[in-house]
Prior knowledge:
By secondary structure, the chain is of the alpha/beta class.
Amino acid sequence: xxxxxxxxxxxxxxxxxxxxxxxxxxxxxxxxxxxxxxxxxxxxxxxxxxxxxxxxxxxxxxxxxxxxxxxxxxxxxxxxxxxxxxxxxxxxxxxxxxxxxxxxxxxxxxxxxxxxxxxxxxxxxxxxxxxxxxxxxxxxxxxxxxxxxxxxxxxxxxxxxxxxxxxxxxxxxxxxxxxxxxxxxxxxxxxxxxxxxxxxxxxxxxxxxxxxxxxxxxxxxxxxxxxxxxxxxxxxxxxxxxxxxxxxxxxxxxxxxxxxxxxxxxxxxxxxxxxxxxxxxxxxxxxxxxxxxxxxxxxxxxxxxxxxxxxxxxxxxxxxxxxxxxxxxxxxxxxxxxxxxxxxxxxxxxxxxxxxxxxxxxxxxxxxxxxxxxxxxxxxxxxxxxxxxxxxxxxxxxxxxxxxxxxxxxxxxxxxxxxxxxxxxxxxxxxxxxxxxxxxxxxxxxxxxxxxxxxxxxxxxxxxxxxxxxxxxx
Length: 474
């Protein structure tokens, strides 16, 4: 199973790994690994970082592409995943691209799985050793753009490609009015339900975003299903929900937005006070907490609440479609998340690609990105990872997501009711604070308003520590 986000753990000695990587001969792809003790020893021997590179590259301006390629250009790219269908597909795409033309040679580098990818990016950026093409989880884009890790790619992407992208892809990749990133796939949320169970209980099945259950209606449905013998009829994937997990924000910020609340002031991004702890947010999370207190939510400790039939409703994303339909062939439907007062909302955003400030040649990087965005290449990747195709042209050739397909709801939602996670450089602090508060509220049953007030304090402290993240960068 592949979820569209990553966690956060410390890393050791990555600058040293990057220095040694540069001395190795090029190959189409490779995995880089050095034990922490070896890196530490080499650091003592003089394996240091070259921080000036980032400043010099920033001075080069933001016209990332000028439309010219001279000779053969070598570029490096990083990828966040280890051995998987997604990684193997990308490896083959790199091989095919390199074989099909001579202007650009791409080297794919898969990073050590033992260390958290996001932290490796931070370490490499600090030493000026980022690759030309960087893979990153979507909401991290805002901090990367603000802090100077990325270059805007408006000058690279033709209008025809921009217009073909799903609106959610364009929105996810935009910061301060500029396009900084683009993905080949997106993500989406919904309620997976078993129609046979609902029909037997006399429960209506929503037909689309305009017909979503209300939160109050869903509460009644859960009690009806309990009367039908389902003790814990709702699965919220609480096996993902440890404090600090991105699932808590990705999965349940939509409930806050649907209620009329927010994680931070969406206009100024200067405070969370009055938004994350607003009456609307408190009400939405109180509803979720009440479901938990009543035992209506399965703890899902075995990761099988839905597939074993304990919970006929599962609040989760696109990545569970294959497993769920395998468990109940012909008896799975995806319906919108509940409406908490101002309409249903879905989460969105997945891994994106960006051009780093130190890239050798933006046009060379774009040449490869343009290849990955071809409809047949997007379909190739989304067949491997089950994600949602990023362009309208790729959707048309993807039966599950095309008109009449079983996952078509995800496309409809991304075009109408999807919202990106908070588009601010403070996002790492926002998501950590909200995730911890969600775990306290829903899992530990802590007082809702107090937990949200604490989260507000943590976010506003981060904003103060960074002078409100001024628009001209750190």
